[in-house]
Amino acid sequence: MLYALMGLGLSLITGVLNIPNFAHGALFAVGAYLLVSTVNVIGNFWLALLIAPLGVALLGLIIEYAGIRRLYSAGHDYQLLFTFGLALILSEAIIIVWGPVGYSHLPPPILRGGLDLGFTFYPKYRLFVMVVAGLLVAATWLFLEKTRYGAIMRAGIENKEMVSLLGIDIHKLFTVAFALGAYLAGIAGALTAPIRGLSPQMGVDMLGIAFVVVALGGLGNLLGAIAAGLLIGVAQAVVAAYWTEASTAVIFAVMAAVLLVRPQGLFGIR
Amino acid sequence: MSNSKRRKILKLGAATAALGFPAIIRAQPKEIVMLGIWPATGAFADVGPILDRGMKMALDERNMRILGRPIRYIVRDSATQAGAATRRVEEAVDGEGAKFVIGPWSSGVALAVSEVAKRKKVFHIFSGGTEDISGARCHRYSFQWAASPYTAAKTVVDNFMKANPKAKRWHLLVADYAFGWSVEKYIKEVGKTHGLEFVGADRHPLGEREFSNYVQKAAANRPDAVAMINFGLDAVSGAREIFNFGLTPKVPLIMTWSSGVEELVQLAPEIRENIWVGSNFYYTADTPVAKEFVKSYQGKFGSPPGYAPSAAYSMTRLTLAAMDKSKTGEVQDVVKAMEGIEVNDLLGRMRVDPATHQTIRPYFFMRCKPKSAMKHPMDFADIIATGDAPLPKEYAACKDIGGF
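^ inputs. structure came back:
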């Protein structure tokens, strides 16, 4: 579900803004660090889980408004370089603010420990993450499918010029899409912090997986991103049960296999 | 053309050639060039800077001089990749005149660097878990500072079983490269003497961050103890996941070959509860050199040193001691001086076996403290035992160290 969440955010940005956001992994890491800092300040995990991703969304909003927007006329390559540079800047900023040494953050006491499900053991916190991520994916999906702004966003992915000609502020649409994508990366990072701990490079692994999800689902295809995220997660879990060593490799094997048959991805049309 | 004009042109030509070949100018015959091949990028990028600190501290103690000659310390990034590391070592040897190579930090990469040392006939010392440097692939130019995997396994298994005699069912999580294989082999060998049953042994790739699949399998086996044979962020990620699954603190976790401080500081005190740690160094080691080093390191960097900076520091001191003993500083003389050298240094009594180039030295076994017993945030563990049992002859794979 976390993969779907990350893939959905990245797919939204890729689809609407038509740029591969290389800073998506760094935004994921910022979400994790903001969660821990917020918990340290207010002492409440649940409230911090609400606040931290909003901080990342605000950061996304600033990045789009102050940076990417100024490069729309400069061409695709410049936007790509900008997000790549931004990823490095954010990683270094994490080192400056929070230090180079990683650390652990415990789940709230009620979610610590594992559950014996009869056929397997599973950590309570991971079950919680699964449910929350599922709800977030569903909520995002409903927003995009059932609301007017969601429809505008989907139209923006299909044809930006047409949306612009209809009198809709396309720049505002870009800003909102980037902020929403950043929010999804931020909350994925915040939810992941107690599972994987925190380190300045924590976004790098997740960025790779997020791009696999986007490519597998079809560039800019939101339903595809959700389906691909779930597919990869299930494939990884199934392979891990029988051949643990191959559980990481299977992510890329699935992508390669699908792209060989459908170069446009599972649900892609371009 | 007049003579004076010709001389001017020759001088200009010489100056141009000198500018064009700065390496030749820099590699003065009197200076001793030491290379630290440390990971600045890649899987152990977090460790590279602290390895550099340790080596610098040892060199600074000598005011960057040895045998009346200046030492030039150069650093290259091993990137934890055999190809990059060997290329950079070769360039440093050929272009910078490096004759003494210390590092890198990964066993697999070190074995490749060791081959370069053999071919280029330069001194090489390394600290890591592979037994091959002082075993099957031993040769005259490479030395091993870390305890033999056998010494580590024997110290860990014997002392853990002494404290937990009923914990007979072990599940292993092993890093899938040279270091992991070596330590796993001896954990199983020593385990036989205690009647251990290994209910599972999963191997994971270097740089693994998602341990839930491995821990799920470990939990399903219902072991009495889980032993990890991995290192750095792999070990931290594994320990965190084992706690998340609720195995620790009920089931003891053994970090067989840990960096100590650098790993333990990344784990919350609750996660550290009932963790048992084997390491090549722990900062409360009770030797005069360790006490002085720890004090100086803490003064400079604000935290106690773990295995990595201590290994770099001690390897450099050992190399410098061999240079002193050689009286010439020439590579082959230093190698001869190093063979059989005995020092009372960072870890106490340390001796280099001339037959295998393995350093015979103590290995540390600690138990992490519960949060309530910690006197300060860095008070992670108590040393409960040390062991220095050398590799028995029947296991020794280095039959002939060879010539120059």
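Chain B has two domains: 31-147+281-361, 149-279+362-395. Confidence is low (pLDDT under 50) at residues 16-25 of chain B.
thumbs up if we can close this ticket
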